[in-house]
Amino acid sequence: MTDHDHTQTYAPDPAFTAQANAQADLYDAAGADRLAFWDEQARRLDWSTEWSEVLDWSDAPVAKWFVGGRLNVAHNCVDRHVEAGNGDRVAIHWIGEPEDDARDITYAELKDEVSRAANYLSSLGLVAGDRVAIYMPLLPEVYIAMLACARLGLTHSVVFAGFSPNALRQRIDDAEAKVVITADGQFRRGKPAPLKAGVDDALSGNGVDAEGTAESVQTVLVVRRTGLDVEWTDGRDAWWDEVVPQQSTEHTPEAFDSEHPLFLLYTSGTTGKPKGIVHTSGGYLTQASYTHHNVFDHKPGQDVYWCTADVGWVTGHTYGVYAPLSNGAECIVYEGTPNSPDEHRHFQIIEKYGVTIYYSAPTLVRTFMKWGAEIPAAHDLSSIRLLGSVGEPINPEAWRWYRDNLGGGTAPIVDTWWQTETGAIMISPLPGVTETKPGSAMRPLPGISVSIVDNEAKEVAAEEQGFLVLTEPWPSMLRGIWGDMERYRDTYWSRFAEEGYYFAGDGAKWDSDGALWVLGRVDDVMNISGHRISTSEVESALVGHRAVAEAAVVGANDETTGQAIVAYVILRGNVDAEEDRQKLIDELRAEVSREISPIAKPRDITIVPELPKTRSGKIMRRLLKDMAEGRDGGDTSTLSDPTIMEQIREKGTRG
Ligand code: PRX
């Protein structure tokens, strides 16, 4: 992604500015008094007890925001809209993957459904602070389940339904979840695929290498979605439709402390073990609500809002569920893939429901580009008035294509930088206020403090690359890594400990106009279609196969997915026949898919005689990355054996 044209800028359209939620004075207000600014933003929400202090940073790096304040997140996302007389508004237009399978849920209906689910979960004896794992496709029940947890102060841990039983088990054990909420199966490209079976495997340990016991799990609650046959464990398993609908719709939400943990979300770090990122309530919802209002220019009762992310990722949490519902939005929730039954699906949905705000990812935009401009052109997309992008740097070509073909050549694009850890958007243009440049996230939002520094924590000059750091705490920041506060300090706060900066793990630069460009990860984390996967996770899955002695994995540029996973493996014994080597490569791909998820499957696997190592035995990934990206190797003088790259090139078997 190097075609950065720093000169091309798009000024805000005055007509947009005239009606925009955010005005330029937002920057001034935050600049004048940051904490007073956040104090004001928190008043977007309903609190049952007011806070005594905006921020307590005395226990840094663990922040307390809105100290002593009490609120109920589900009340803020559901009940208060009903109480305000907007119960008849649609909260969710749910659209199933099979055509004509759709359901609209109003805020009043959502309140009843969430109350029923909350009453059921309480009947199990769960109490505030208990953990609930949710392993589900994008069904209405996933929203209901998350909000029911929030209502009761249960901490949910949503696990992407594309993750393997192995990955699910790891997350269940780490959080000691008492309940798993799942579905019998999910529709994928027109076919039902089992899901409950994966939960059974995860819990019984079938095909799973787990250290824990999964003994924490007492109940598996199953949504009937596909009608697929499922195995049943009496006393543990319950069908949602047999236990939830008969519950009462009366449920009084209790207010919880602002710092009560709302959810855990596991994300890849630089080691094989995923990190359970901890998010709390008041600060999280404040920043979620504030950013959704200002960055997406959302107007309740007018806009139809679609965030295309799956709920298994942080974007699906913050901008699929909590932020839009806190603002009383009318949301599109689509269960399936964008090409089911064909490539017109997203555009048909936009046209049919009159979507006005569309928030998606560069990888999908590039996929649309490949399918061709005639597909969006066949639909009336004129309702769209704002486009968003998240997950990876958007290349300028994709940015322009997005604006021209989905945004009628006029819609502002908000390129939003943030992370699972930040909880909500941190860097983005404000539509109607900030001018935009294709490929740049432009500038930190009002209330957010960012710097780009060198190794010595000195701010770099314009056009120089450095490390992206956050220099002040922010309300929706993570409060730790579940069960491992030391790793929390080490990972994010040790690099610039003296200055107290949060190290984001991304490289970035300012251009000469002061626009911020995010340049990608500077650690061993890959970004595949906007999904974070660590090289060591994939390496450990590969060496888990009996035939593999050693593996090295790198992320290489890929036209559609941003990065692709490229693996180099050394075998334990001799496998000489080409056919056998290819078969083994297929097996290795399947192994990674089984261990982690199909999304972690390497694009290329090369069987090599050796790996490039320094004299001290460290694998030189840079050389492998060069090779994977088709560049002729750089400096090989530090290699223990300088001929290695030649050998890999000549003797490697690629599949
Ligand atoms: O490298 C950055 C990239 O995605 C990482 C965060 O990944 P995750 O926690 O999975 O959250 C993704 C959705 C918020 C970041 O460290 N990233 C995210 N958004 C952008 C981005 N890179 C460039 N531009 C963005 N807009």
Automatic annotation (TrEMBL):
At which positions is ATP bound?
391-393, 415-420, 506, 521, 532
Coiled-coil annotated spans: none
Q: How is it modified after translation?
A: Acetylated. Deacetylation by the SIR2-homolog deacetylase activates the enzyme.
Catalytic activities: acetate + ATP + CoA = acetyl-CoA + AMP + diphosphate
Q: Mind naming one GO cellular-component term on file for this protein?
A: cytosol
**Where along the chain is CoA bound?**
188-191, 315, 339, 529
- Which residues are Mg(2+)-binding? 543, 545, 548
One GO molecular function term? Answer: ATP binding
| Annotated segments matching region Disordered | 629-655
- TM regions (residue ranges): none
- Residues bearing PTM N6-acetyllysine: 618
Q: Is Lyase one of the keywords UniProt gives this record?
A: no
Q: Does the keyword Nucleus apply?
A: no
The record's Gene Ontology biological-process terms are: acetyl-CoA biosynthetic process from acetate
Question: Its family?
Answer: Belongs to the ATP-dependent AMP-binding enzyme family.
Q: What is this protein called?
A: Acetyl-coenzyme A synthetase
Taxonomic source organism: Dietzia natronolimnaea
